[in-house]
Amino acid sequence: QKEVEQNSGPLSVPEGAIASLNCTYSDRGSQSFFWYRQYSGKSPELIMFIYSNGDKEDGRFTAQLNKASQYVSLLIRDSQPSDSATYLCAVMIQGAQKLVFGQGTRLTINP
Amino acid sequence: GAGVSQSPSNKVTEKGKDVELRCDPISGHTALYWYRQSLGQGLEFLIYFQGNSAPDKSGLPSDRFSAERTGGSVSTLTIQRTQQEDSAVYLCASSSSYTDTQYFGPGTRLTVL
Fold first, then answer.
1. How far apart are CA B102 and CA A91, in angstroms?
2. pLDDT per residue over B23-49, tens digit each?
3. Residue B98 CB: number of other CB atoms within 10 A?
4. In degrees rounded to 5, what are phi and psi of residue A52?
5. What is the pLDDT of residues A9-54, one digit of tens each?
6. How many whole angstroms separate alpha carbon B33 and alpha carbon B12?
7. Do A98 and B103 touch (CB under 8 A)?
8. d(Cα B15, Cα B82) in Å, to the nearest integer?
9. A43, A90, A98 member nearest B56 (Cβ)
10. Is residue B100 less than 8 Å (CB to CB) from chain A?
11. How far is CA B27 from each of CA A52, B3, B8, B20, rounded to the nearest angstrom?
12. Of A1, A4, A65, B57, whose Cβ has the fewest other Cβ atoms within 10 Å?
């Protein structure tokens, strides 16, 4: 089992709809969770981080964390074509100051 | 403010040559990380520096890879006797001592012919 798993997609969502991106992780002791956005040919850009169970909202983005289910998700409301990118879920492994990344989900927002 | 900077942005080298990749972290950030992103492989951790502590080298794929961080700031990743499988984008990130949040530089695209 991979440490961090994401559906590679592609995920296609119409403009204005909600895009839902999911991630599961294997290390139950993980404490810090991150979502990065990566445009083609560019480096990852931090979108959200979340440490506590529940929801965390920032503008059109909501991160959701459920440690019991070892599940973290990212919701993008009112999706825009500029949201089309690969979204990387990253988990900081307990006891190690390194991020373990999922393979990324490629999201396409259709006008 | 200035973000993480990396140089060169692109590097093409011949198999067997040595290369050096440079990272300049965000000013005041004590932690510095190197990752590698290969086609179809995702992002993989290479090495982590925190202040004056011994680096975590657990992700370095072979002894051809080494890194140093001078004066707690700039870091250099060196790959000796490059192989074609070393072709990838090498990404540097930094974080402050108060948070786990890592900010990435633009990366160096290495191509080994």
1. 11
2. 999 999 999 999 999 987 789 999 999
3. 7
4. -110, 150
5. 899 999 999 999 999 999 988 989 999 999 999 999 999 999 999 9
6. 23
7. no
8. 5
9. A98
10. yes
11. 29, 8, 19, 22
12. A1
In whole angstroms, give the CA distance from residue B67 to residue A81. 39
Which residues of chain B carry a pLDDT beneath 70?
A: 1
Residue B1 structure tokens:
């403010």
Please enumerate in sequence order all residues whose Cβ is within 8 A of that of A106, keeping only pairs 6 or more positions apart, or say none: A8, A9, A10, A11, A85, A86
Backbone CA torsion sign across A77, A39, A66, B96: negative
Instruction: State whether residue A86 is helix, strand or coil.
Output: strand
DSSP A82: G
- Tokens 């949040």 belong to residue: B101
